[in-house]
Amino acid sequence: MGISTISSRSFNQQVSAAKKLAENGPVYITDRGEPAHVLMTFQEYKKLTGTRRNIQDALSMAGVADIDFDPQRVNIDFRDVDFS
Q1: What does the alpha-carbon distance between residue 19 and residue 26 come to, in Å, rounded to a whole number?
Q2: For the whole prediction, is pTM greater than 0.70?
Q3: Measuring CA to CA, which of 1, 28, 63, 66 is 20 to 30 A from 14?
Q4: CA dist., res. 54 & res. 56, Å (int)
C-alpha cells in the first residue's frame, strides 16, 4: 500500500487518474505544497472508521436461510388488573 501525492490542480484535471492511484493506497491532495485532503477507496475508509453493519446487512447474511429455527409455542395467560 503506497501513498501518493498530487496537487489540487492535477487532481481537478485528472480525477480518474487520482481514483486509480487511490486503489493502491491513500492519495494526498496538496494545496500550495501542503497536504490538504486525502482520497481513498470507500472500503479503506470503512476499515479506518470501523463502520458497523446496519440491521439490513445483518439480516441479509448469506446462509441465514439454512439455520433451523423452531421456537416452542408459548401460552400467555391473562389476569385481571387490581388498581386498588
Answers
A1: 10
A2: no
A3: 1
A4: 5
